[in-house]
Description:
By secondary structure, the protein is of the alpha/beta class.
Amino acid sequence: MVSRLMRPKSSGNNYRRLNALGKRGERGGMMQVPSGRVFERDDLELSRLMVANRFIENQKQAAVLTSGMSTYVYVSGREDLTDKNLFEWQVGRKIARLVKQYGESEYNQRQQCLIGIPTAATAMAQAAAMVSYAENILVNGQYICHRTMRENPKRHGLHQGWVNGEPQPDIHVYWTVENVVTSGTTLITIAERLRQSGYPVEDMPILVFVDRQQGGIKKLEEAGFRKIVVAYNLLDLVFIFGELGLWSKNQVKAVEDEIAANQF
Length: 264
């Protein structure tokens, strides 16, 4: 059976409906989003930083994604993340807390080790490990660690292959971390590379920071990935952008229409 960790709910016809939390659905730093989840104060602050640092951007010109699809809403995670210390730290904290939440509920004893998908998620995995140490976020009594994956395999020196470090599944639970999923194709390709390096792909949880909600998570499940954690749904985030006055309602509607029209 597929274990769907923090799997997004279908928004259905409730997309535009706010719960009775007062003005604009907000009370005490909380707001309900289309999936039914409640964004807490940290989620709202992280949403503001995503817009301020252009991590999620509504562009005038379409960009072509790895999946081949053109989009006007782009999810990044490169210099917009690594040049902004506060934002990178907040992203790392979010990931570390999710790993703690699901690592402790699913596994015992072994240390959680994150492998960021290059290049965007490399910094995310490292940030989570650093926050784990600095803020004493322990999973099964141990700090979160991370390893670096290469864009191209190393063919020289002592540590060849796709990942810095040989797999040690007896002491580590390895996670793949990805900044965004559209069709799921990138993660399926990456899984084969990890398998070539001896990593236990079928047993590795996947942490997706932003799911574009275009069918990629379903494709990953169909490919055999059993443990998937999604930090944020794209439609939840753009909804919040609109409610906080960071994006116009027209921008929010345009993203909603694009996602609905482009499903894999």
